[in-house]
Amino acid sequence: MTTALEIRDLSVSYRGGIEALRSVSMDVGQGAMVALLGANGAGKTTILRAISGLLELEHGKVTAGSIRVFGESLENIAPHQVVRRGVFHVREGRHVFADMTVEDNLIAATFARPSRSTKLDFGEVYRYFPRLEERRRQLAGYLSGGEQQMLALGRAIVAEPRLVLLDEPSLGLAPMIVKEIFQIIERIRNEKQLSILVVEQNAAIALRYASYAYVIQNGHVALSGPSMDIMKNSAMSSLYLGGKVAA
Ligand SMILES: Nc1ncnc2c1ncn2[C@@H]1O[C@H](COP(=O)(O)OP(=O)(O)OP(=O)(O)O)[C@@H](O)[C@H]1O
Ligand SMILES: [Mg+2]
Fold this sequence. Notes:
alpha/beta; Rossmann fold; 28% strand; six-stranded mixed beta sheet
């Protein structure tokens, strides 16, 4: 399988010398959904920032190791260039433009397209998320939490990426909505053959949809394997799943 993302021995420090990642290695196969699990502060978001180039904004830097996307190194590449290579980072907390309409939020995402196409047909987004079409002239700030997450994913679709980084899509959402959102993410992955790296606190749902998972603990990979194996791992179950794997 072609590799969408290949991280080797990545170490990252933030200003003040805090070492957030220590020699992390991981892969995402093309068209696969891979989960990044772990407790608060483990380093999950830092991995996504290192890939998308947002680390610098946070006064962090890669101190060792390499990141390759579709075979190409991301060393010394600015965030907007990473986007042009087809990597789209949906940040934690959704980050839609609250005082712009739903449709204007989608229009803004066209600038991230690697093809530089300015096509303004959002039919595909509205097929995945009919609720966004109903609310397309509404200000994004007035959407519910679940709808804002849908808009953040809609923006990712508009950007036409090959690799999507999702930071906690379930954050603050009711279980029913979380399930609905993961089902749509899975449909999008399958239909568009997208590669997805998803960070989740909700390990049960992530393991159900991802084929492979990495468990991050104190800045390094503590455990990795096919989701089924991680689910069955007793240490994993008591640490992160609280015994509710079947949620
Ligand atoms: N901008 C920053 N400056 C300094 N330290 C940071 C910064 N961002 C994160 N850290 C530290 O790096 C470590 C990893 O943080 P990170 O945000 O990657 O964790 P996480 O696994 O995403 O946690 P959470 O589940 O709470 O989102 C933590 O110890 C955190 O305090
Ligand atoms: Mg985080």
